[in-house]
Fold:
Amino acid sequence: QPHAKICLIDLAGSERASQTKNVGRALQDGAKINTSLLALAECIKALADERKKDGRIPFYNSKLTRLLKYSFKGDGLVSMIANIHPGREHYEDSHNTIIYAKHAAGI
Structure:
């Protein structure tokens, strides 16, 4: 019997702590988002690697990747929206976001 599942995940707040000047709870939240993004990057890298098609994918390294496991391994459709800033002062972050999205598009 067919079923559907949709996950909408907002990873805003992953900016560098030194740029945001966040403290307390906001700083902790940003660190957790960055940890989840690193875990997601590891999964994307493993899924995109042809040599690891049947190998271990590190889905259990974060809550985010556990949540997305069946989206990546099943018959589902996954979309990612990567937001970038056109300002010169945001070049490095925007460039890294584009590279991240390029790797994600490879799976």
